[in-house]
Every structure is written in C-alpha cells, then in structure tokens.
Amino acid sequence: MSADRFELLRGTLDVLILKALSFGPRHGYAVAEFLEQATGEMLRVEEGSLYPALHRMQRRGWVESEWGLSENNRRARYYRLTAEGRRRLREDIAWWSRFAATVSGVLELHGDALPGRV
Amino acid sequence: MSESHGPMWRRYLRFWGSDPGADIDEEIAFHLALRRQQLEREGLDSQTAALRARARFGDVRRIRKECMAIDRSENRAARRAEWLDGIRQDVRLAVRSLLRNPIATGATLLVLALGVGAGAAVYALADAILLRPLPGVVESGQVFEVTEYSFSYSAFSDLRRESTGVADLAVFSARNVALEAGDRVELSDAVVVSGNYFTLLGVRPAAGRLLQEVDEAPGAAPAVVLSFPLWRTRFGGDSAVLGSQVRINGRPATIVGVSEAGFGGTRLTRRADLWMTPAAWLAAAGRRYEGLGLDGRGWTWLTGLARPRPGVSREQAEAALTRSASALAEQFPNFSDANPTVALEPVANTTTGPEGHGLVVGFVTLLAVTVGLVLLLTAANVASLLLARAADRGRELATRVALGATRRRLARQLLTESVVLSLAGAAAAIGVIVLVLGALARWTFPGGVSIADLDLRLDWSVLAVALVLAGATGLLFGIAPALRAGAGSVVPTLRDGRATGGLGRQRLRRVLLTAQVAIGLLLLIGAGLFTRSLQRAFATDVGFRTDRIAGTTVLLGLAGYTTERAGPYYDGALRRVRALPGVRSATWAMAPPLDAGAYEESFDVVGDPPPEGRPPATELNVVSEDYFETLGIPIVRGRGFTTADGPGAEHVAVVNETFARTHLGGDPLGRRVVIMGDTLRVIGVASDVIYHELDEAPVPYLYGALGQQVAASGLSPFTLLAHTEGPPEELLRPLRDAVSSQDPLVPVLQPSTLEAQLGEVLLPERLGLLIVGGFGVLATVVAAFGIGGAAAYTVSRRRQEIAVRLALGASPAAAVSGVLRSTTFAVLLGLGIGLTGGVVVSRFLARLLYGLGALEPVTLLLTVLLLALLSLLAAALPARAALRLEPMDVLRTE
Question: Using the 8-state DSSP alphabet, how is residue B586 labeled?
C-alpha cells in the first residue's frame, strides 16, 4: 500500500471507529465486527490495526476505556466516545460528506465540461 | 513497570489495572478468542479457527508493541503533567501553610537572609582578595614575588643576566607622582617597573602598547602606560590620548598605551594608576634622588618578580637566585648582607604586601567561620521550629495518611516548604548582599586593602554561592522534619489529637537545642573577646595626645620644589595655620604618629668605638618646633626644639628614652650622633611613645629639627599637625585651605584626625567586633528564641502532666522543673560545649588580637552567665503561662 493511500485509510479508519462507538461503548472485537458488517469487503484491514488506532485515539482524548464484563462474562476493555470524540466525529462526518461529494462530483464530470477547453 | 515512579503513577496504574503490557495482552487475547469462537460457529475446527483468527488479526507482536509505545508516551506525558501538578500543589500548600504563621515565617526568612547574605558577601570578598586577586596575569601561580631581598637597579640587571636560564626576573616599586594632564595636577600612584614587567606577567594592552625593553634602553623617550580606570575616568577612554604628552612631576612623558581592564599592578593595597620605567621616573623624581642614580648599588628600592622557566621549581629558582645574589654580595661587600637569601612567595599571597597576607587570610577565615556558625545556628533553629510545627500538625498529617497519602508524599510536602522557605531566603539574601557590599565599600581591610578598590561584583558565582548556601541550609533544616513525617502511628494521633512523637524526635529536638546554645555561646564569647581587646586598646596609653589633633600631609617633592624653596614654604604654611581661630599650636612632622611607614637610618655615636659589623640603626623623624608640646609628649630631660634651632645654629637632636638607654649611656645630653652625614648634638630626651602599633616593642627613635634637616628630608611627604581647641573635625577644611593657600600647586592629601588614625590602627579589632559582635547578638537572639520555643513546646505537650503534679500538691516550681528537666539538661550541655569551644577560640584569638591573655576567665564567665540568664528567661515565660492554667480545666479538656 502506498504511503498516501495508507494515510487516507488511517483517517478513514479513525472516523469509522468513532462512528462505531457513537452507538455506545464497545470492545475492540465489536468494533471490528461493526466495520466488517458496515463496509462489507470494501475496507478489508487487519483487525489488529484497530487496536493501535484505539489506543492512539485514547491518548488524544477522543475515547476513554474501562474494563468491564462482556456478553459471555469475560473481562473486556470497553471504549467509549468522550465529548471531544463526539465533536471530532461531527466534524469528520461533515468533512467526509463534502470531500466525497466533491471527489465524486469531479469524477462524474464529462470531458467537454472541463474548463479551459475551447 | 515497577513501582518506583512515585505515588501518582501508582494511582494511575490502579485506575487502569496493574500493568499496561498485560492489559494489551488480555485485550488481544479476548479479540482472538471471540474471533475463534465465531469461526468455529461457522464450522471450522478449533485449530484452523485459531490460525485463521490470528491471520485476520495480523502480526500480534507488532501490534502489541505499537500499542505499548502509544500507551507509554501517554503515560509519560501524563506522569510529567501530574508531577508538575503535584509540585504546583505542594508549593501552593507550602506558601499557604507558611503564611498561616507570618511572624515565625518572617523571623526565619530574616535570619536566613542575613546568614546567607553575609555568607555570600564573605565569599565575594574572599574571591576578590584571595581567589582571583590578579586579573590579567597569565598563570599567576607561576609568578613569585621576591621577598627578603630587595634590588638596586644594578643588582637587578646583574641578577637577571645571571639567572636567565632559571627564571625571568622583573622589578617594580610603587611611588607617588604628580600627574599633570591638561590644566589639572593630581597625585597618582605610579609603579616604576623594568621594561620586561608586563611581558613577565603576561598582561595585555587594552589600547596602544605596554612598556617594553626598548623603553628601558639609555636615551629612550620617557613612556607612560595608563591603568584602564585612569584612562576611563581621567581621559574619557579616548584612544586619541595615545601618543600625547602628559607631565609627570613636571617632566614630559608620552602615553604609549593602556593596560587591560582589571589589572592594577600586583598590590591590592595600592592600585596602580600608571606605569613608567626607572629611568623615566628618576629623571622626574627630583633632587632628593640626585646622586642615587641607576648605577649605584646602595639604594635597594626595587621589589623583584620572578617567573621560573618551564620545568624549574620554586625551590630550584630560589636556590639559583640565592647563589647569584651571594656571588654579587662577594663582589660588592659594602652594599649587601654577607649571606643574602632570596625567597619566592606566590604573587597571589603578596597582594597586600609581604606581611599583610596572613592578616587578610586570618580575617577572611574569621569571617567565614563566624558566618558558617551563624548559618548552622540558623539551620538548627529553623529545623527545631519546623519539627515543632510538624508535631503540632500531627493531626493534619495523620488525617492525610489515613486518607491515603504516603509518608513519602508527606515528606515531599514538608521538604517543599523548606525549599520554598530557602528560595525566598535566597531572594531576600540578594538584597542583603547588595547592602553589605555597599556598606563594606567604605571600609579598609586589615592589611590596608581598600575595599572600594576591589572588584566586588554581584556576579553569577556570588549568586550561585547564595543559592547553594540557602539550599544547603534549607535541606539541613528541612530534612529532619521530613524524615520524621508521619513516623508516629496514625490511630493514636487521630484519637488523642496529638502526635505521639516518639523518642527519636525528642532526642533530635534536644540535639538541635544543644547545638543552638553551643553555637550562640561560642559567637558570644568571640564578641566578648573582641570587646575586651578593644577596651584594652582604648585604655592603652599611647604616650601622646590623640584627641583634638588634626593633620594634613603635603608632597613638595611632587610640585617641583627645591630644598631652598621648601624651608620658606613650611614656615609660611605653619604661620597660616597658627593664625586660624581654634588652633592652639601647630607643628610639622616627617613621620606623623601612628603612621604605618618608618624611616630608618644608621648612625654612629661620636666618642664611642665603632661597633662590630653593621652600624646601629634608629628610626628617624624630622619635626619642627612645638612638636612635643603639640602632641603632649613629655620631655624627660633637656629641652625640645625651638625656633632658635634654625639652619644657622648648631645641629641638634632629641632622642627617646630607649635610644638614650641603649646607645648613649650615662648622661645623654651633649652627646653627638652622626646620622645622614650630619653631626647632631643631643639636647633632650623625650619619653617613649607608641610609634606605629599598640603592641610594638620600644625602639630607639631620634628626632631632628626641620629647620636644619630640610636639605636631607625636606621633599619627603610632611604632615602638619594642629592641636585644636574644639573638635578637630571642624578644623579639617580650614586646615587644608590654609595649607593650600600657601601654594595651590602643592598636592595636599585628605586631612584627618589622629583619632581616626588610631581607629585605623585598631581596624582589625573594630571590624572583628562589628562582625563577630553583630552576629553574636543575632545568634544569641536566635538561640533564645530556640530555647523559648523548645520550653514552650515541652510545656504545652505535657500540660496534663503538670496539671496532675499540681493537683497532687506539687509546688508550681517543682511541677514545671520536673517537666523541663530534659530541656535544662540540653541547655547546660550546650553551654558546656560552647564554653569548651570558647576556651579554644580564646587561645586562637589571643595570638591575633591586642592585649588578650591566653585565657580570659572573666569574659568567658560573663558570657556564659549572660546566656544562662537569657535561657532561664526564655524558658520561664512559657512555664509561667502553663502554671496560670487551672489544673482541673486542663485535665477535663484533654
């Protein structure tokens, strides 16, 4: 994977994780499940790479974590959005919508509509 | 991770679990387990499911490492933030707790600031006099002053040539000159130096060039090098003066350069204004030095400086120079001791003259020891204050322990209080340093170093010393309470509301108390000894009148006078002064009383067989009529000088009793003495007096009449002494004006009184009293506070016990003294230790100070008694307060 695509992906991963957590506290596996179901095969990443992302987001104060019991009574670390994380998610959603609209708008242009063409 | 990261970190860990590494492992294991279960549900066998789960997860080790790195950096940042936050909180708490007790805090700060400030000021002084006395000199440790041997110019040339393989040799001699530039004449300190002087020292020019060997060559134009300060103040630091002409004693000379800033010659007692070569100086020196010249060997007026060649030791250089000097003595037996020795003294030790160094070192040591003791006392006092406070705060501290604060945390807080206190003390000390250095600038140091001349700056090293002193004191007094923090067990403290203390703490308190009393007594004994010495000094009969004498010195030699013109000048000035209202009598003297310098001449007694070896020598003074009357020196036989003893009359002399007894025998009157090529008839015997120092042994002394000795001595500095009717200070200005009006071109030195002169003779004692006495009083006050505080604390802690004793019918005195027994013992022990130290100190001071016996029992006993009384008083006040309580009230409330 080239470096710039990786960066793009990482930003994408972050916003998707935030989105996953916006429905309530989840542990890492649940986040992975959510991503898999929500994106299908589109965003196939190593599941492990979620964890550095989660820890990094914790350091930035977007999420906080707490140990709790899982559905099958195992100790699991639950991540939860902070107020800061929520704000971040809203901004990212706005930015992504604009970005996606712009990019797809550009990609849907026909050749003769390009400016500068006589 | 280990637990060595402090309590905050531990709390952090508790919040997350015990170990971030294990946490991540657990988190990953959970994920893999869930994924495996999921895959198994989809139909994979458990082994394949585990493999697939791992494959989907990615590189476990890499991811674990990545997470760890992220967490660690987070923890580091958090730890730093928490640590800083803890410090901030501690400081805030410390300031608040210190402000809660403003008087105690203020007193502590004051004592700390005084102690630390004085300590740093002493360091600045020692630094300027002893540690870096010769800025500008390259490798000053390799430069030596030649002592026990002085050079004629010819001897210098010979010895320098002889010893050139062993050491480089230069010479210097400090002389007063009249420096005339523009239309101003000023008396200046010139140092006459050989051409290689600057090269030998390694001093560099700030402008132009320094003197070189070419300036010494015969026929060279007279050249002058200015000191940096003179160049700045007198010539405005203008490089245009280089190459211009000034007049030295009326003779033209060229300014060739300026020496580097900070260099003022090798004497701190007499900073050089300018340097010139022997030939240039001699040409301008006037007739007094006519015939002496540079070729003669009898006039040994130059002091040597030597820098041994690389690889040559001081001892080797001394031996070689002594050999050369001996060879020279054999060649010219009339001009030197038969067996001269050349000794080399590091030039840093001769900055106050060869004799002054010991005095200066002794004095700085005394200062340092005194200030050190005061600092120790301060530390002990503040430590016991803080200890008492920590005990009083037992409940607060115990509560905090119960709430989960660790002992280390409490210790840190108490230590923070000390650090805050000592930092504030250091800040206040800067003010004290500035004040002390400013006040010192007006003083002259023993040995004659004018402190105003010293390079005393509040530089970084002084500030560093202040900080270190304050920090060390703070640590010293902060560490004991900090170590004891929370040492008592929590439950009884909370239950009873009192710290249980423990034996260790009580012992520590007693040790601190003993130390305070001992140090206080030691300083008080020192102050007592200085007082005693001064008392004896003032009671000493110097043999002449010291009150109501004003004097001023003139330097005819610098004004281009000839001996022919000198006589009328002296007569005229004396007439003008005698005409002043308020002057009873006036006289001239070549050597005024208590002057440090002495004129010595050898003499023969007519009619006596010539003595073996060298002829006897006497101190010599030349005075005008009325000298003995003005100073009130009794004439025990014959008469003093009158106006009749003029140039035309028979030349006469007055001798002192010691002279008459040792050299004249029988009837001294009418005997004849040959001195300075002149035959004098003894017409009187004056009583012995103190000539220079209070503890000097009687020496032979001969007075000649000014009218008859003008040719021999007339151009030396002469001092006019006036006996006044009222306070002599009032006549200082009129005296100077009257003398100046005789000839405005003659340099007149600052007039002063004989009492001030006496004060300068007693300067070491007076400075010592000021310092030791000042600190002694301070120490006593601090110690008294310490004793009072200790007594108050003990009494307050044992009120219950006192109440019980009272209730059981004990007398109040018995009740309290029983409780205060340990305090009393600590004070007595301190007095004993202090007294023992005092005996040692008095032996040491007896060698330094005037009029002290090896043991001064009265002084020692008085000071012990004084401190004992003070202790009693300090302990009695809180004891009385305790007795005023109703026993039953006490027993009910506690």
Answer: E
Q: Within an 8 Å CB–CB cutoff, is residue A86 touching chain B? A: no
d(CA B760, CA B766): 9
Percent of chain B with pLDDT over 70: 86
SS3 B600: strand
CB distance B487 to B397 below 8 Å? no
pLDDT of residue B488: 52
Contacts of A67 in chain B (CB under 8 A): 17
**A59 and B CB contact within 8 Å:** yes
Q: Is the pTM of this model over 0.80?
A: no
CB contact under 8 A, A55 and B71: yes
Dist CA B369 CA B445 (whole Å): 17
The DSSP letter of residue B581 is T
Cα–Cα–Cα angle for B513, B518, B519, rounded to 5 degrees: 100
Q: How far apart are CA B209 and CA B260, in angstroms?
A: 10
Residue B791 near residue B882 (C-beta atoms within 8 A): no
Q: What pLDDT, on a 0 to 100 scale, did the predictor assign at position B450?
A: 67
Q: Which residues contact B511 (CB under 8 A, 6 or more apart)?
A: B826
pLDDT for residue B14: 40
Residues of B in contact with A76 (CB under 8 A): 27, 30
Q: For B17, which of A58, A67, A74 is closest by C-beta distance?
A: A67
3-class DSSP state of B456: coil
Q: What is the pLDDT of residue B538?
A: 77
Buried b (16+ CB within 10 A) or exposed e, B141-172: ebbbbbbebbbbbbbbbbbbebbeebbbbbbb
Instruction: Tokens 């004085």: give the residue.
Output: B118
SS in 3 state form for B241-292? HCCCEEEECCEEEEEEEEECCCCCCCCCCCCCCEEECHHHHHHHHCHHHCCC
Q: Which helix (H) or strand (E) holds B604?
A: strand B600-605
Spatial separation of the C-alpha atoms in residues B63 and B69, rounded to whole Å: 10
Cβ within 8 Å, pair A67-B59:
no
Label the pairing between strands B251-259 and B223-226.
parallel
Q: Is B851 buried (19+), middle (13-18) or exposed (0-12) by CB count in 10 A?
A: middle
Q: In the block, which residue shows the tokens 């990953």?
A: B28
Write out pLDDT tens, residues A39-71: 776 666 788 888 989 998 988 889 998 888 888
A63-69 and B184-193 strand pairing = unpaired
Beta bridge partners of B171: B304
CA dist., res. B488 & res. B505, Å (int): 10
Pairing of strands B223-226, B167-181: unpaired
By DSSP bridging, strand B167-181 and strand B245-248 are antiparallel
pLDDT at A113: 54
In this structure, the number of other CB atoms found within 10 A of the CB of residue B74 comes to 17
Contact present, B20 and B66 (Cβ < 8 Å): no
Task: Round to whole Å and give the CA distance between B641 and A109.
Answer: 130
- pLDDT at residue B123, as a whole number: 85
Q: Which of B722, B772, B769, B764 is nearest to B848 (CA)?
A: B764
Q: Kindly report the average pLDDT of chain B as a whole number.
A: 82
Distance CA B485, CA B505 (A): 10
H helices present in B393-458, as ranges: 394-402, 407-440
pLDDT at B234: 87
Q: What is residue B722's predicted lDDT score, i.e. its pLDDT?
A: 95
- Greater pLDDT, B426 or A112: B426
Low-confidence residues of chain B: pLDDT under 50 = 1-18, 495-501
CB spacing of A74 vs B24 below 8 angstroms: no
Q: How far is CA B487 from the centre of its chain?
A: 44
